[in-house]
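REQUEST FORM: STRUCTURE PREDICTION
Request ID: SP-0412
Submitted by: Lab K.M.
Chain count: 1
Length (residues): 84
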Amino acid sequence: MNAKNENNDIVSMNFEQALKELEGIVGNLEQGDVPLEESIRIYERGEALKKHCENLLKGAESKVEKIRFNRDGAAEGVEPLDSK
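STATUS: Completed
RESULT:
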């Protein structure tokens, strides 16, 4: 099975699930006691998880709106959040 097939489940993960697994992978790699082939495999999965998390964050940012206030301090509407 190639790395792409092994990572098909990632697309169905929510942000928290993907981040939790990514943190586990980083912890395993930092310990340094994972065999080389396994390290490569989980590193590739980590890259796929990182990309998925980034895409989910970009999607969330595009949905966030900020409230506009008039001079009296009353809310008068919403506008897209500046993406800086």
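NOTES: The two ends are 40 Å apart (CA to CA).
Reviewed by: T.R.
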